[in-house]
UniProtKB/TrEMBL annotation:
It comes from Acacia crassicarpa (northern wattle). Pfam families: CTLH, LisH. Residues 61-118 form the CTLH domain. Coiled coil: none annotated. This is CTLH domain-containing protein.
Length: 226
């Protein structure tokens, strides 16, 4: 048997919202977490000075992390590896999957430049031994070397490896590994909280009609139609 939804007026809803007390200090920490994780070092420094909110990592390391990420996104993988080792050599020493993916990206860049012979030698000497030790690495290697068989990559079933999205995927993996080495979350907390807000509203929609946020960019309450 269907039941009618409870109707909550704007006045009632706003009173409930006002009764929830959120410390400004906690909001500042949330903002700083976002700036640090996303790599906005200049904004984070300015926010630190204006709000007195201290980041949980050295802001100087953000510049290093962003330089490494940019190097991968630009296809300069060797430069990225060198910078990572300068920052913290233990990251690659203890993360075989990340190191393999960086080497795989180096191979992809050689293929992109048409350096077939150099790419084949690199695959044989650097990647094949790792593939023999790990089945998933071997499968990824086989997918990558299959690019050598195609002159027109538009007809290649694994042509997406040459897309910018592949560089971004590797760069994001590098970014997450650096953050983890600094005991920092790989993802900012703010987007997760917004996802929770959307989920909570969907759950409440089944039970009540209330002023809800439809546009997260404005956070303006809009009255729901009963």
């Amino acid at each position: 048997m269907a039941t009618s939804k409870k109707v909550i007026t704007r006045g009632e809803w706003e009173k409930k919202l006002n009764d929830v007390k959120i410390k400004k200090e906690d909001m500042n920490k949330l903002v700083m977490n976002f700036l640090v994780t996303e790599g906005y070092v200049e904004v984070a420094e300015k926010f630190r000075m204006e709000s007195g909110t201290e980041p949980d990592i050295n802001l100087a390391t953000i510049t290093d992390r962003m330089a490494i990420k940019k190097a991968v996104q630009s296809g300069n993988v060797e430069d990225a590896i060198e910078k990572m080792n300068d920052l913290n050599p233990e990251i690659l020493d203890t993360n075989s999957q990340l190191f393999f993916h960086l080497q795989q990206q180096r191979l992809i860049e050689l293929i992109r430049k048409g350096k077939v012979e150099e790419g084949l030698v690199f695959a044989h000497e650097e990647l094949a031994p790792r593939g023999q030790e790990n089945q998933s690495f071997l499968e990824e290697l086989e997918r990558t070397v299959s690019l050598f068989a195609f002159e027109d990559f538009s007809d290649c079933p694994v042509g997406e490896l040459l897309d910018m999205s592949q560089r971004l995927k590797t760069a994001n993996e590098v970014n997450a590994a650096i953050l983890a080495s600094q005991s920092h979350e790989k993802d900012p907390k703010l987007p997760s909280l917004l996802k929770m807000l959307i989920w909570a509203q969907k759950q409440l929609d089944e039970q009540a009609a209330y002023p809800r946020i439809k546009d997260l960019s404005t956070a303006i309450l809009e009255d729901s139609v009963v």
